[in-house]
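Researcher: I'm preparing a figure for a lab meeting and need a structural model of a single chain. I don't have an experimental structure, so a prediction will have to do for now. The sequence is pasted below. Please return the structure as tokens so I can convert it later.
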Amino acid sequence: MKKRTTDRDLTRRDFIKGTALGALGLALYGKDAGLEAASSGGRAVTPAPGEPAAAAQGPASLVVLIRSEKAVGAEDRIDPAVVQDMIDAALKAFAGAPDTAKAWAKFVGPEDTVGVKFTHCGWMRVHTEQPVIDAIVKRVGEAGIAKDRIFAQDGGLPAAKCTALINVPTVKVHTLAGIAVSLKNYINFSPNPSKYHAPSTNLGEVHLLPEVKGKTRLIIVDMLRPYFGPGPQINPLHRWNYGGIMVGTDPVAIDATCLRLCQIKRRLFKGEDWPISPPPDNIRAADVNFHLGTSDPARIKLVKLGWDKDALI
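Model: Understood. Here is the structure written out token by token.
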């Protein structure tokens, strides 16, 4: 019988903390980031005018990455039980909670109407895996939210009805935006999505729409099988089984970290620099222009759990 990976298996390993900078991160983001987002009790916080940025005291945004070599099996099959355990373990670590129920209670409760916004891209065909969606919907229901107040959708999700949003994107290099992770995943909330393509420096506007602003409680990124090559046609050689899930509340820090991963993977694949085109300028713009979070790797605290082989970041 196949042994199931448990929360204990995933969390008893030592945390590996990293805020790797390097010339790549410094060149991309610089040190003049705008208003920073901090993590407090699992909810994103921004300093009030006149207050010193949290980054002055240390990293401003926490991101948790968990990986398992058992998450993706033969023929790219996803193991739902492993995925559930990964999400639970990552969320407990992020929230600083002793168990799964208490971790979820920090983000959603019985009074909420919750939108689980996943990615189903018909063009590039890099979708949020169904076991990731199912695991999140299950825990949201267990947090006391009735089924008729949980909307797990891509297009057509009624954000205006929701009191809480959970952003559940994939990771892919994108032919119109440079990279598509959490910032790009909300593009469907706009009545004019094409407005945010090439250039995409205005992408942060989507997160400030009245029906969206302030509602994102969690970002849970499907990093099981990222796509690092150019599109729109998918080249199987440019997709790899990374076996990861990322959790955070800062969309800019999440995207900056995923960008770094894709850039490293592209360089390893080519044996030389392989710049992303168009440049993913929307990440730094979301920081400096729209104040949605922090894009500077020096101000992002990355905590890694589980399988560390070929983690790259």
